[in-house]
Amino acid sequence: MRDHDHDPDHSHEHVDFEMADPGDRAVAGLSRRQLMKVGGAGATLAAATALPVTAHAAAPSHTAGSSGRGRVWRAGDHHIHSEYSGEFDTTRTPPVFHKGADAVYPIVTNAIMAKSFGLTWVMCTDHGGPTHSKVNLELAYPDLLKSRRLVPEVLQFWGMEFDAPAMDHHTLMIPRRDNEAQLLYDLESRFAKHDPFPRDPARDTEAKMVEFLNYAKNLTGKPLVIAHHASRSATGLGVWGQDTPREFRNNQDAAPDVYVGFEGAPGHQAGPLSGGARGGYGRYPTHGGYDQMTAIVGGLWDSLLGEGRRWWITATSDSHVHWTRGGSDFWPGEYSKTYVHARQDYGDVMDGLRTGRIFVTTGDLVTGLDIAATHGRHVATVGQQLSVTDSRNNDVVVEIRFRPLTGTNANGDRPEVNRVDLIVGEITGPVTDRDAATNPTTRVVARYGKSDFRRVGGEYVIRHTLRDVTASSYIRVRGTSTDEAEPAADGKESPWEDLWFYSNPIFVNVA
């Protein structure tokens, strides 16, 4: 595959980079700092419902033209904690649960704050523990039902932060159905490693994790499983901790339509604002707010994609306690967003997460990102596959459209995209080393600065022609507000000064 950065067929115009006219500022009625301080420990429903619901970056945003009817980009967050991330008194039998020990906000407070920051779907993911499956069923789930009634504009999924056997935490998202509470109880009580009391070492093995996934994939309504903060326990670059490449591969092989990816941008991004590290990554840092497994070009994510795996990235808040109240977190949607191309429907949002109709962003750097790869009459968008069958013309045209924020983000800034990168890697098939974490064929084939963006209405457009595509490959896109060629290892800089967005891939199959 030959890449062309600025060839005559590249088909873009020079225009000045200019943001659209700003819209209404932020949240009506309350200042940003007032908004931040609502919902502290022991927050009442009355205090929560007093919040305004006008979004900073209102979602849904624009429609991507090549996809299903009624689908638009809908921002959400699948990793949010409530007061049901508590603690257990194990000196008593059975253990006694106490709310609010780790995270402090009621479920409805999280939903209202998510709405105020432009989210249309969220998920409650509380920690497990000894006999926690019963807490979820009898205490937390009734509160979720109340929250759904009080905040109907936000789809509120049921699930948990699953205590994955032999691994770090994972999202366990349950399909919206009448028996969703019983389904989660079944999965948590059978397979979560911390649920038994007394503790059962047999529940904390790789074999148990695979058993869980084999069970889950055969359910009538399949759940989704997404790894959280996958290299937070890593001690160096490529020196893995609790989660390893081998486990990711084994797990996805067991249930490829259940086990679908990891957080590209983990939560706890406000760490530097309260003296900590972004993401809580205290051993080896994030890069531009993204986990090293995602941020390093040619790294683990590219290794998985190079096998042809449908492996997706997301971005979450992991909200426990807001940074202005002594925590290290932003509210859901305040900083990180996972956009899914879907209808406002539980099933379609979950299908979008399962099939990779996703892009992620921090700091509301963009509110829409459409990528289309075209060969002849065939077109594919993120999560899809493009077939190249005409040996007389193997060119693939890539069109990138991104929509900047109109107005200001939650920090009062109007972020600007400084550069967009087009990244391509070859698909070479299954690896022999199950712990492989590199794809040496992956590279940035083109970098586009502000002067390269063509303004079309409220969007900016970039077109690039990949010449003579003779090997099966994948295409992905990232962009940044910075001037860094590659996202640098994070220090104590403000997260608002270091913004990135990432698409999920388009696959190209050369017959």
TrEMBL record:
Gene3D superfamilies: Metal-dependent hydrolases (3.20.20.140). InterPro entries: Pol/histidinol_Pase-like, TAT_signal. Residues 1-21 are annotated as: Disordered. Residues 1-17 have a biased composition (Basic and acidic residues). This is Phosphoesterase. It comes from Kribbella sancticallisti.
